[in-house]
Amino acid sequence: MEQKMRLKPNHIRYIVNKIAQDLVQSTLLELKGTLESLTQITLSVVQENVDQEVAIDHRARDLLEENLDEIEFMRMDERQLFWMIKKQLALKEDFVLGWEDRCNLLSHKILEKF
Questions:
Q1: Relative to the CA of 1, which of 30, 37, 75, 87 has its CA 20 to 30 Å away?
Q2: What Pfam families does its record include (predicted)?
């Protein structure tokens, strides 16, 4: 089963700084620009991705709340239903939830913008 990655808003700054420093120190890349500009680009890409996931989470919760009576009547597991709904919404919006694929996508977006 593919591992899901959940980026939390309070982790963004650390992740952004780590990515930017790793890219600058990489011997495989020749980057033209400053650490500061790379950090800003990385921040915008990661923040946009986190915001997309938060929006998907909100829509999934809204759908759960709209059907709460049925869920309770049928004795369904709300957490499991939340993940099923989230997975469907993410698929519909081409949002990647898997750890490795999401890291790859973020990396490519950062490098494309830089």
A1: 75
A2: DUF507
